[in-house]
Amino acid sequence: MNLSNEESAVSRFHCELKLEQKGAHARAPGERQGTFVDGVRWRQSRARGRSGSAGGQPPARHDAEAVAPERRQPLTGIGPGREEALSAHPMQSGPGYAEASPGHRMQAGPLHTEASPELTNDAGPVAPPERATFGDLVATSLATRASFERMACAAACSATVLLEGETGTGKSRAAQAIHRSGARANAPFLVVDCGALPANLLESELFGHEKGAFTGAIQRRVGAFEEADGGTIFLDEIGELPAELQPKLLRVLENREIRRLGSNTYQPVNVRVIAATHRDLRQEVQEGRFRADLYFRLAVVGISIPSLRERTEDIPFIVERILAGLGATPEQQAKLTTPDFLARLQRAAWPGNVRELRNHLERCLVFQDALPPTAPDAANPLAPTGSRTVDPSLTYAEARRRALENFERDYVEALLKLHGGKVSRAAAAADMDRVYLYRLLRRHGLKS
Ligand SMILES: Nc1ncnc2c1ncn2[C@@H]1O[C@H](COP(=O)(O)OP(=O)(O)OP(=O)(O)O)[C@@H](O)[C@H]1O
C-alpha cells in the first residue's frame, strides 16, 4: 500500500482507510477538525482497484490491490510533518495501521485451536464450535480469535503493545498471557496503574528517585522500569498518564533509558512495554490530550479486545473457565452451564464485560443458585439494582456496616456506568478524589 501526503503542515488523524471486499473506504475521522483536499472539505470516498475518488479529489492514492483481501484492517494516514510516516514494518499493525505486507505476518507458537466436544441436534451431529486458546484465555468468536492471533505475534517479539478495550474485557489478562508466552516469561512482569497516582508519585513509581529528590524522599528508590529489567512492564490505564509525564515515557520508549527523579544521569533499561486503555486513544490524540508521537510509539502492535456483547459466542467457554477458577464443584458447574442459563447470560448486556460476568457467577456460587443476570434500569443507571431489606437479627452496628457497604457498591457501580467506565470523569462528577474512587472500585471488585 502506498500513501502519499505532500502537505507538511498536517497533524493528528485526517484520513482513515478501511479495506473492504469491494475496495478501500476512506473517511475523515471526527467532526471537529476538518480534512481539506485542495481547499474543499472532504468527508469520505470509496476507491476500487487502483483508483481513489472523491469527486476527482482523492485524499491519497491507495493501491488496494497490493493488500490481500483478508488484511482488512483500518488504516489511519497521518501527515509526515510532525509524526512518523506510515511504515511497512509488519508489526505496525495496530489500530490505525494496516499490515503492509501479508507475507510478513508472524505466526507465533502459543496460539492453539481445538474442537470442543461434539454436539448433536435432532438432525444429527452439528459441527462443534472451534475453541481457540491463548495462554489461559479461551474463545471461539472470530473477533477474539483475531485478537489472539495478534497476541501470538506480539508474544514472539519484544515490540511495544497497546491493548485497547472497554473496562473489564480482559486487557490485564491479555498482557499477562503475552508476557508468559514470550521469551521474557521467566523475568518480572510489573504492573503500574497510570490512573491511580498523582503525577509526582507516578513518576517516582515508574522511574524511581534519589535520596533527597523531594521532601519525604528519605532513601533512594528503584522504579518499576528498573525493577522490571529483562522482563515486561504493564502500563495499565495509559490514557490517564498525566501530560507532564508523556514526554518522559516517550523518551524511555525511544531511547530505552530512564532517569531517576533527582538524578542527572540516564541509565539503560531492557524492558518490554505493554500498555492498556479503555479510552479511544486516537480520539484523545485528536482532542489534544494525548501526544500523537507517544501514541505511535505505544501502538507498534495494537490489539483491540472486543466487548463481551460483541462476542457472546465466547460466553459458554469463558463461564467454564471462570467457574473452574472459582473452584466450582462439578454439580455447581452443571447447574451454571445449562443451555437455558447460558442463553440468558448471552442475552445480558454486561457493560462491565467479563469482570461483571465473573462477579455474577461468583454471586451465583455464594447463593447456590443460577441467578438471572440483573438488568439495571437503562433509562436511569442510578436506579438501585435490587431491593435492600434490613435484618433485625443483626446488631445495629453490623446492620449499619452492611447497609453502608451495599450503598457504596451500588453507588460507585452506577456512577461508573453513568460515565461510561471513565474513572476520572466519574470522580470529577461525584466530587471525589480519583485515587479514592479507584480504591472503592477495587474494594468492591469493580476494578482489578
Ligand atoms: N477470558 C477470560 N476468562 C476468564 N476470566 C477473565 C477473562 N477475561 C477477563 N477475565 C476476568 O475478568 C476480570 C477483568 O479482567 P481484566 O482486569 O483483565 O480486565 P481489564 O480489561 O484489564 O479491566 P480494566 O480496564 O478495568 O482494567 C478479571 O477478574 C479477570 O480475571
TrEMBL record:
<dbReference type="InterPro" id="IPR058031">
    <property type="entry name" value="AAA_lid_NorR"/>
</dbReference>
<keyword id="KW-0804">Transcription</keyword>
<feature type="domain" description="FHA">
    <location>
        <begin position="1"/>
        <end position="42"/>
    </location>
</feature>
<dbReference type="InterPro" id="IPR025943">
    <property type="entry name" value="Sigma_54_int_dom_ATP-bd_2"/>
</dbReference>
<dbReference type="Pfam" id="PF25601">
    <property type="entry name" value="AAA_lid_14"/>
</dbReference>
<dbReference type="Pfam" id="PF00158">
    <property type="entry name" value="Sigma54_activat"/>
</dbReference>
<dbReference type="InterPro" id="IPR003593">
    <property type="entry name" value="AAA+_ATPase"/>
</dbReference>
<protein>
    <recommendedName>
        <fullName>Sigma-54-dependent Fis family transcriptional regulator</fullName>
    </recommendedName>
</protein>
<keyword id="KW-0547">Nucleotide-binding</keyword>
<keyword id="KW-0805">Transcription regulation</keyword>
<dbReference type="InterPro" id="IPR027417">
    <property type="entry name" value="P-loop_NTPase"/>
</dbReference>
<feature type="region of interest" description="Disordered">
    <location>
        <begin position="21"/>
        <end position="128"/>
    </location>
</feature>
<dbReference type="InterPro" id="IPR025944">
    <property type="entry name" value="Sigma_54_int_dom_CS"/>
</dbReference>
<feature type="compositionally biased region" description="Basic and acidic residues">
    <location>
        <begin position="60"/>
        <end position="73"/>
    </location>
</feature>
<dbReference type="InterPro" id="IPR002078">
    <property type="entry name" value="Sigma_54_int"/>
</dbReference>
<keyword id="KW-0238">DNA-binding</keyword>
<keyword id="KW-0067">ATP-binding</keyword>
<dbReference type="InterPro" id="IPR009057">
    <property type="entry name" value="Homeodomain-like_sf"/>
</dbReference>
<dbReference type="InterPro" id="IPR000253">
    <property type="entry name" value="FHA_dom"/>
</dbReference>
<feature type="domain" description="Sigma-54 factor interaction">
    <location>
        <begin position="137"/>
        <end position="366"/>
    </location>
</feature>
